[in-house]
Design goal:
- The radius of gyration is 19 Å and the shape is globular.
- 26% of the residues lie in helices and 32% in strands.
- The protein is α+β, with helices and mostly antiparallel strands.
């Protein structure tokens, strides 16, 4: 018992990024609620047996009612109706099926743009959102996927040397992508919120680079439990993040278990 206690104390910083128990106090001031959600094309190719997934996601968003939503793997499905969000920025590509990223906002978007990554369709986009007298820069990021199938049989059948090499290449791509985003955000003097699918964990190099740039993790400030954001068989993976810059705080954070994608949505109320 003593040995286990010592190990837990020594590794507290690492454990705290995986599991949290927080009771944040309500903070007075300006606030905005933001959600990040990788919707996997609204189940366009029927990965999930649930019918009408796009309708289910619409109802979920309507119920939770965030001020701003950052969608990754967004597809302009014909049945979509997010009429509560008059301000939008979509950055899509693809020939047969358009897909990409989108930022939906209840508040006016005064500027917007994209950040291209080399040798991939992954990207980052941003929108400058006017809330009262403040302009908030919101980034929506989708870093390179590791493309690892959690199916045990398929994993065991893959060539280990090839798998390790491929993961190494993905790490390098993610590092270059994170560097590009961090260089871009240095030129912005607004308060900033980073939303998105990092395709890597809070123990990764890219995550630590954002922490080094003085971004705070909304889950660490106000989350509870494991903070699972990805449907991985072996253990709870937290690879989707809401990060905020200095002079901003978190008054609430939510993890959801809605199974409409291979990712789970997250939401935070940001205060300044």
């Amino acid at each position: 018992m003593l040995l286990s206690l010592v190990v837990l104390l020594l590794g507290y910083d690492s454990v705290s990024t995986l599991y949290r128990f927080s009771s944040p106090e309500k903070i007075s001031g300006h606030n905005i609620s933001v959600m990040s959600y990788n919707v996997r094309l609204f189940n366009l190719y029927n990965w999930i047996e649930t019918p009408n997934v796009e309708q289910e996601i619409q109802e979920f968003v309507k119920k939770e009612n965030p001020d701003v939503i950052a969608f990754q793997e967004f597809h302009p499905h014909k049945n979509l109706n997010f009429s509560g969000y008059p301000y939008r920025y979509e950055s899509l590509s693809g020939k047969k099926a358009k897909y990409g990223q989108a930022i939906f906002s209840k508040y006016k978007i005064v500027d917007k743009g994209g950040i291209k990554f080399s040798k991939t369709n992954n990207k980052a986009i941003y929108a400058d959102i006017l809330k009262g007298g403040d302009t908030i820069r919101v980034y929506n990021i989708h870093f390179q996927s590791m493309q690892i199938n959690s199916n045990t049989k398929e994993l065991s059948e893959q060539n280990t040397e090839y798998l390790v090499k491929r993961i190494g290449q993905r790490f390098e791509m993610q590092q270059e992508q994170a560097k590009t985003v961090l260089q871009h955000q240095e030129k912005c003097n607004y308060k900033k919120i980073v939303l998105g699918d990092f395709n890597n964990t809070a123990y990764s190099y890219i995550y630590k680079q954002f922490k080094k740039a003085k971004y705070k993790d909304a889950f660490e400030l106000a989350g509870n439990g494991f903070g699972k954001t990805y449907d991985f068989k072996f253990f709870p993976l937290r690879i989707d993040f809401i990060l905020l810059s200095d002079y901003m705080e978190v008054s609430s954070f939510k993890n959801y278990s809605s199974k409409y994608s291979d990712h789970y949505p997250i939401q935070a109320e940001i205060t300044w």
